[in-house]
């Protein structure tokens, strides 16, 4: 249902030209082209973050999200985060994600991000049956709207709003140039293995992912400040519940 709605919205908006967007001081103080990163600005797309051929990552010092946009319609995504579990405070799930593809600035002020199909993610779930694995990650994203403001301390600040209007963490401009891996398919996803788990879930993984899962993917370097905060928040939530 969501995918159908997303496609319908994109098709309707595609009739308007990207030139219809008004780039004024309240919307966009600088072009979206460049490299953007949230928080401490340690999560930055490009070769310092991901090695798609090996389905590997270089873990940043802090969690966050980063995007790069080129002037010829390519984007790259880097994301590193941990999520708590209120009922099981020690079961902190970590994910690190890389993807790239094409973006379109639509005339209604939204952005559609369409991956080329070679994205991947590592999931670390200590309380799950399979606690550390790599799998495909390829999701078309709709950003309902976007704004770039001038932060008095950090300069241009990009605000992205997801399909439901919820905000992505504010992104600061690390560089006016896009920091990206080559603009082509960088990971072989043609040779995949489909398996059905004991509880009926269907998974699809590349041969490289399957090999890495059997040998064990590297442990994520969890930033202690963030982890302690998540554990504390989960414990407080459990008490409230």
UniProtKB/TrEMBL annotation:
Q: Which UniProt keywords apply?
A: Endoplasmic reticulum, Membrane, Signal, Transmembrane, Transmembrane helix
A single GO cellular-component term on record: endoplasmic reticulum membrane
Q: Which GO terms describe its molecular function?
A: unfolded protein binding
Q: Name one GO biological process term.
A: 'de novo' protein folding
- Main localization of the protein? endoplasmic reticulum
Superkingdom classification of source: Eukaryota
Give start-end ranges for the coiled-coil region(s).
none
Q: How is the protein disposed in the membrane?
A: Single-pass type I membrane protein
Q: Which family does it belong to?
A: Belongs to the ROT1 family.
The identity of this protein, by name, is Protein ROT1
Q: Which organism is it from?
A: Mycena rosella (Pink bonnet)
């Amino acid at each position: 249902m969501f995918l159908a709605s997303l496609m319908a919205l994109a098709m309707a908006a595609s009739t308007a030209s990207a030139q219809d967007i008004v780039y004024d001081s309240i919307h966009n103080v600088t072009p979206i082209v460049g490299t953007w990163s949230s928080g401490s600005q340690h999560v930055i797309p490009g070769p310092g973050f991901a090695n798609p051929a090996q389905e590997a990552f270089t873990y940043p010092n802090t969690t966050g999200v980063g995007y790069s946009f080129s002037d010829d319609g390519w984007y790259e995504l880097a994301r590193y985060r941990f999520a708590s579990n209120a009922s099981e405070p020690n079961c902190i799930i970590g994910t690190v994600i890389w993807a790239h593809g094409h973006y379109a600035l639509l005339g209604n002020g939204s952005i559609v991000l369409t991956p080329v199909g070679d994205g991947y993610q590592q999931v670390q779930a200590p309380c799950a049956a399979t606690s550390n694995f790599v799998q495909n990650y390829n999701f078309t994203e709709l950003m309902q709207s976007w704004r770039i403001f001038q932060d008095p301390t950090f300069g241009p600040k990009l605000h992205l709003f997801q399909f439901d209007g919820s905000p992505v963490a504010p992104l600061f401009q690390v560089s006016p140039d896009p920091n990206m891996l080559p603009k082509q398919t960088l990971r072989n996803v043609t040779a995949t293995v489909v398996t059905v788990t004991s509880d009926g879930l269907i998974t699809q993984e590349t041969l490289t992912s399957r090999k890495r899962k059997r040998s064990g993917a590297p442990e994520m370097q969890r930033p202690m400040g963030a982890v302690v905060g998540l554990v504390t928040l989960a414990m407080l939530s459990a008490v409230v519940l």
